[in-house]
# Entry
Amino acid sequence: MLFSELLSACRDKIYAFSGLVRICPIDLVWEHMRKKNGDARYDKCTRTAYHPKCKYMTHQRSPNSIGSKRENDRFTCRRPLLNFALFRVSRQISFKVSRVFYSSNKFQLRVTQASDLFVFGSLKPHAISSLRSLHVDFRPNNPSNFDELEELLQQWLATIQTIAKHTTPPQLSFALTFPSADVEIASILLESIKCLPRLRSAALSIGCCQDSAI
Ligand SMILES: [Zn+2]
Ligand SMILES: [Zn+2]
# Structure
């Protein structure tokens, strides 16, 4: 190994330990909001139905709970703040920092409307090509509104082309969930992922038995 390579390996380790890497997934939409608004309060806990157990959730025994009664106990998320200041040191550092950030974290995108997918348009190509773990979770605000669903799917078809274009094969672990999808949506989604290059892994969970049309 060259000395310069050794240095860069060390540097990556240092970045990883300085608040750039989190055990739990990071929400891409919030990350996008932060960039737009420059505000760390968008750095949210991403506990969802798909990621039910936040690794940073700590159990606080309520002082007046007796024996095994735990109704009054509270759970608090003590996730560390992501160190976004590192992105602003210099252009050269920022490039390396973002490579570490996007390749070392797990990302999830909770899509409630078409515009949530715009985040991929704002990511730099090298950020997308650094991604190693991405979960796109479709939770449309109005699952029965045909026009909104149509818009959402159109945006998704454009988005997956962007992802496919920049993804580095075969490093991406990709997951897609759309619990409220019907048969028609399911087939559009299945067709859409065919443009992706070779993936490290793929997990799909589309539709569920609550749809009477199936
Ligand atoms: Zn949390
Ligand atoms: Zn978590």
Notes: Residues 24, 45, 47, 54, 56-57, 77, 79 surround zinc ion (ligand 1) (CB under 6 Å).
